[in-house]
């Protein structure tokens, strides 16, 4: 079975891409520094940018981090699922220091996707996995996108169809005194999180996700945001309207969940059409729109 084969590759220090409900991950044995280094190399990722360690459950997460009560409450509300928690790393954690980029904290996520869960159980240890794309590029939401970006740098890509959510996990840091900070808006809407934590603190320069560089999640084409209509020669990414000729729509009905699921695949497709500029319709900032707008702003940022 391919899950067993994938677990074997991980044990041997190889890289395996696997589906999660957010985006595809590029996995390695978290406890093997050479395997972790191979991830940075395959992605062309700067080594100061730490990785998320994936675990099957809250119980396993507690072997790696000191989780304050508020972090446990978040895990109980949203795990398994599209949430990543950043908390103080335990000295006895088996996760390689390289994966944490020398920080005193560790990022942990228990994904819900059945293939991800099966892999975690078959492997039997934490799996570090960034999104399975070249560094700075659009995340992969289909197995074929992983192959396009990483080619044979990855030994095996587990097929899991189209990522259901299509945006990366929401990342929340919880400090020892229980203060929760939103480091990356994502698949879980702010309001759902705040129902558990109360008002979230905004990420400051001091505590932030090192990977949240200004330019990220970017296609080859330049992006023009909040565009009511395309200029001549631009490809258009519509929202709340049908796809125009030569363009695509994130959601004809204006559904933000559908838009999130389509975002990266549509950016890749319009990129492949050869347009120099992709004009993107205004996306409302409510609900999942916060995370979609965050990714679009980074994709449009100067490189
Ligand atoms: O949905 C997701 O989160 C996907 C799937 C595969 O789980 N993974 C993902 O990983 O998006 P990646 O590496 O593309 O993004 C992880 C982010 C980076 O911005 C990184 O800087 C941040 O998490 N991060 C990791 N460890 C951290 C830490 N200790 N403190 C702050 N930020 C951290
Ligand atoms: Mg990424």
Radius of gyration: 19 Å
Helix content: 25-40%
- For CATH, the homologous superfamily of the largest domain is named as DHBP synthase
Secondary-structure element series: HEEHEHEHEEHEHEEEHEEEEHEH
Question: Per the principal axes of the C-alpha atoms, what is the gross shape?
Answer: globular
Q: What name does CATH use for the topology of the largest domain? A: DHBP synthase
- The figure for the number of domains is 2
Please give a handful of descriptors for the protein shown.
single chain, 303 residues, alpha/beta, DHBP synthase, Rossmann fold, 2 domains, 11-stranded mixed sheet, 4-stranded parallel sheet, 9 helices, 15 strands, globular, binds threonylcarbamoyladenylate, binds magnesium ion
SSE map:
Layout: H1 2-11, E1 16-18, E2 25-29, H2 33-43, E3 52-54, H3 58-61, E4 65-66, H4 69-78, E5 83-89, E6 105-109, H5 114-123, E7 127-128, H6 143-150, E8 156-157, E9 170-174, E10 180-184, H7 190-197, E11 201-202, E12 222-224, E13 235-238, E14 248-249, H8 256-272, E15 277-280, H9 289-300
Parallel strand pairs: 1-8, 3-6, 5-9, 10-11, 12-15, 13-14, 13-15
Antiparallel strand pairs: 1-2, 2-7, 3-7, 4-5, 5-6, 9-10
Helix pairs in contact: 1-5
Magnesium ion is lined by residues 130-131, 139.
Task: Briefly say what this structure is.
This protein has 303 residues and is an alpha/beta fold. The chain has 9 helices and 15 strands.
Characterization of this structure:
The chain is an alpha/beta fold. It folds into 2 domains: 3-197, DHBP synthase, CATH 3.90.870.10; 222-300, Threonylcarbamoyl-AMP synthase, C-terminal domain (Rossmann fold, 3-Layer(aba) Sandwich). It is built from 9 helices and 15 strands. The chain has helices at residues 2-11, 33-43, 58-61, 69-78, 114-123, 143-150, 190-197, 256-272, 289-300; strands spanning 16-18, 25-29, 52-54, 65-66, 83-89, 105-109, 127-128, 156-157, 170-174, 180-184, 201-202, 222-224, 235-238, 248-249, 277-280. The strands form 2 sheets. Strands 1, 2, 3, 4, 5, 6, 7, 8, 9, 10 and 11 form an 11-stranded mixed beta sheet that branches. The protein has a 4-stranded parallel beta sheet with strand order 12-15-13-14, with helices on one face. Helix 1 (2-11) crosses helix 5. The longest helix has 17 residues, at 256-272. It is globular and about 60 Å long. The model has no long low-confidence stretch (mean pLDDT 95). The structure holds threonylcarbamoyladenylate (TXA) and magnesium ion (MG).
């Amino acid at each position: 079975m391919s899950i067993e084969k994938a677990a074997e590759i991980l044990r041997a220090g190889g890289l395996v891409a696997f589906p999660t409900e957010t985006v595809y991950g590029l996995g390695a044995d978290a406890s093997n520094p050479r395997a972790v280094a191979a991830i940075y190399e395959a992605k062309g990722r700067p080594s100061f940018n730490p990785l998320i360690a994936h675990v099957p459950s809250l119980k396993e997460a507690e072997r790696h981090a000191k989780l304050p009560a508020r972090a446990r409450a978040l895990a109980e509300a949203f795990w398994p699922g599209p949430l990543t928690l950043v908390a103080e790393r335990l000295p006895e954690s088996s996760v390689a220091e390289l994966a944490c980029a020398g920080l005193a904290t560790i990022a942990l996520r228990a994904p819900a996707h059945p293939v991800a869960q099966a892999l975690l159980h078959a492997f039997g240890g934490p799996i570090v996995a960034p999104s399975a794309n070249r560094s700075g590029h659009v995340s992969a939401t289909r197995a074929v996108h992983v192959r396009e970006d990483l080619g044979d740098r990855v030994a095996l890509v587990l097929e899991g169809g189209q990522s259901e959510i299509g945006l990366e996990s929401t990342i929340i840091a919880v400090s020892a005194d229980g203060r929760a900070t939103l480091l990356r808006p994502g698949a879980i809407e702010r309001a759902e999180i705040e129902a558990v934590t109360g008002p979230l603190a905004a990420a400051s320069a001091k505590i932030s996700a090192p990977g949240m560089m200004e330019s990220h999640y970017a296609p080859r084409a330049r992006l023009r945001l909040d565009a009511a209509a395309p200029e001549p020669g631009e490809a258009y990414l519509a929202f709340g309207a049908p796809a125009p000729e030569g363009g695509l729509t994130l959601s004809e009905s204006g559904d933000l969940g559908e838009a999130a699921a389509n975002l990266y695949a549509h950016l890749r497709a319009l990129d492949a059409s050869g347009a120099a500029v992709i004009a993107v319709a205004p996306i409302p900032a409510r609900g999942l729109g916060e995370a979609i707008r965050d990714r679009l702003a980074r994709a449009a940022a100067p490189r």
